[in-house]
């Protein structure tokens, strides 16, 4: 009977210790759960009725027309009136040759023409009196016509010593200065017309057959604060580039305010045709780098659960690859947040923090 109090004392001793032990274990479990979230970047999925509208192709702006300007006669250049990059108007004088030699030739031919004219007039008066054969009159007339034609031809040489702009445009290239010797066919200037521009868009072989001539396009220019220009497909290449296997698509774009310049970098978008919008209305696109493949060769990606801020693995079905993006035909919905950066450090259920 004396042992009962001892037992009670032991219970009173061990119960608090056990409680403290359990409390310590619970705190350790809580410490294990408190994992630091992984920083990720996300892209929100949004339908616009046209999945391909979201796909951009890198493109380059090019002049619609480039005119090589040359002198038609040889001579020393005496004046160059414009500089590279200058805007010129149609009919503006660009450069001049020394025309001294042609002027002297013209004066010589004018003298011959006057002599032929006087000879024709004299023979014509004699012919009217019946004192000379008609053949002499015909010969004199022929000589006059030949002298007149020669004088006109030499005069054109004088005209060609001045080089005028055939249309409005920019001087894209200047290859001569005053004092240089010009020869026929040798380019002096290149006149660039930019009222209408060409945008060259390399399109992958898997996508090229879905594009048609006359199809609308949207061109956005990074250098102009992503300003958009409407255009139409004017030409589709039938031969691929050797290295890339891309086909160049030429898009015509109006440039009335001359803001587009040759060489500018652009993003091109091709809205789908009307009869394909329904099929594309449930498709979304993601960067190709965000897509992963598991051991069973199945495609998946990670999204963010908005309520728990944890990552979720999503199995998806894929459509065509378009440039650096890929169409997701099944497995995503509008409003989903797809992790496009930081996915290398997570698995399904990893706490994440969205950063900009």
Describe the 3D structure.
This protein has 356 residues and is of the alpha+beta class. Among the domains are: 38-54 and 280-354, conserved putative lor/sdh protein from methanococcus maripaludis s2 fold; 57-64 and 193-268, Efflux pump adaptor protein, beta barrel domain (Elongation Factor Tu (Ef-tu), domain 3, Beta Barrel), CATH 2.40.30.170; 99-160, Helix Hairpins. It is built from 5 helices and 21 strands. The strands form 5 sheets. Strands 2-9-12-11-10-13 form a 6-stranded antiparallel barrel. The longest helix is centred in the N-terminal third of the chain and has 31 residues, at 3-33. The protein starts with a helix and ends with a strand.
Brief digest:
This protein is of the alpha+beta class. The protein is 26% helix and 37% strand.
Question: Could you outline the blueprint of secondary structure elements for this entry?
Answer:
Layout lengths: L2 H31 L4 E7 L12 E14 L4 E6 L6 E2 L4 E5 L2 H29 L5 H26 L2 E3 L4 E6 L6 E2 L4 E18 H4 L7 E6 L5 E10 L9 E9 L10 E5 L7 H4 L3 E4 L4 E2 L5 E7 L4 E6 L1 E6 L2 E6 L6 E5 L10 E3 L2
Give the CA-CA distance, first to last residue. Answer: 74 Å
Identify the CATH architecture of the domain at 38-54 and 280-354: Beta Barrel
CATH fold label of the domain at 38-54 and 280-354: conserved putative lor/sdh protein from methanococcus maripaludis s2 fold
Helical proportion, percent range: 25-40%
